[in-house]
């Protein structure tokens, strides 16, 4: 088009097995919802197709019959996005959890075909089918082989890898059949780019950072906080949250005592030994430690039960081994430091939520943790360039850096970062409090990523 000509608004249909808050296991669920909303806010039409969760009650929309099992499609609006639920009457998705059955692959392949059948039979011709992780990778192949030649002609396929650790064969298939595919941070894209499932298709592949939903995670409007706050009254808001958290979890501690937190699934990916080490180090350095998270592996959970037994008495540590979204808000607000020592991390939302709530991230520099956390001592040049768009590390680095980072995978590595953070807290409280209110301003929104996705959608159509 000519100057000022605007490209056509897009019609994007996400096909996924998670979507917050109705079907959420991890970050994938948050991303489908918040990316969808961000793209919709830019004037595009976004819809989603999901397997019907067990307790879902919505209006019957249509009935389709792709293959023998009879499929019912219902629909409702979730967080402003029109969602279609595919519900085969053989009860494929009437399970307690999204994953974890030994017939997952067969069930999800069936879901992919049913989603395409729904689009065909309702004569929807979206511009983009956006699939997520191995569970919906099959959409790409099934679309080009079995639907594109037979009437569902318009869409092109974009595929996003949220975690490369699962379903690599399926991911490889989608990499081949999709017009563009992405993962959730530039550093993770570089880390997995050499994988055989991806290597031959690098020209279609890029990393786009996730954002967090600014309305869901907003300390200034958060109903779960005793005193909502912004950067200007960060200290006051966080002090009130600390007091409330201590009261709620039965902890001691004076108003200003250092509080270190971890909010995480407790799995190998998240750095279990380093999470335990952070608990000890925080206590040994005169601070307090709070953990919210649980381990699906009973052996790992046993280790944490033992740790809780050793650390909890005395009121300087609290362990909450369950899932509790409201409590997570209070913890992010209360925390001085949030530790994320992942062994690998495609993007990671925890460190971004922490920043939004004025908690200083201490992270292992892997995947998206590297792309979002800039070490106060070591990353001034990178932060000046990537955050402030400046080539002057001396002038712009100090205000663009936002946390503490380490490289190694051992306790010594974590200590290098955590001890510097704790030193800063004790030696220069004013600077540390200033850093806390400053990290609140770090851009963790979808603004930039949503524009990148929209550009990618147009590129996928052009081919
Ligand atoms: P992953 O998707 O690998 O679990 P992310 O950092 O991308 O890791 O996202 C984790 C999300 O789950 C964050 O929103 C975090 O606050 C939340 N979370 C993790 N464990 C719990 C818990 N026990 N209670 C409440 N929220 C949790």
Automatic annotation (TrEMBL):
Highest taxon listed in the record's lineage:
Eukaryota
Question: What protein family does this chain belong to?
Answer: Belongs to the glycosyltransferase 1 family. Bacterial/plant glycogen synthase subfamily.
Protein name as catalogued: starch synthase
